[in-house]
Amino acid sequence: MKRKIVIISVIAIILIVLLSTILCLSQFHFDFSQDYRSIEGYENIVFKDPKSGQCFRLCAWGLLITDSPDEFEDHRDLVSSSEYQLLVENTDAENIWQVVSTPDGRYILYVEIINVGTGATTDEDEVYYRVYSIEDGTSTTIYSGYRQFLLVDWK
Predict the structure, then answer these.
(1) What is the pLDDT of residues 25-38, one digit of tens each?
(2) For the chain, which end, N or C, has fewer CB atoms within 10 Å of the first or last residue's CB respectively?
(3) C-alpha to C-alpha distance for 76 and 21, rounded to whole angstroms
């Protein structure tokens, strides 16, 4: 009986250490969806926290801290973007915040903010990071989070 308690305690401690490590490395940017794996070149997508300047990349549990790339381009200027026009015409996306196309032009990464509520200050802003495939016209959500306002770039 004593041995079972020791084994259970050790397993619990290992799980706590593992979870703590994941929390530390991701800075609480969790999303366990694996849909991003269907996008070719997803490993070149960089997320950046505009407040801290910390950069992240997609991983199995959400976002993982990574080194900052040499150049990180801000893609919030949508007015003259042909990619933005393509998204408006071919998707039902609303409140698009950022748009960036892949270097090979096959995909468009865009950030959509959806306000859930009636306009009060306590409303929830869900942020969806999606990739639109120009070839087949489908959109795939690669990451989402409550008030996760991160900048994106595709290197």
Answers:
(1) 545 555 556 666 77
(2) N
(3) 33
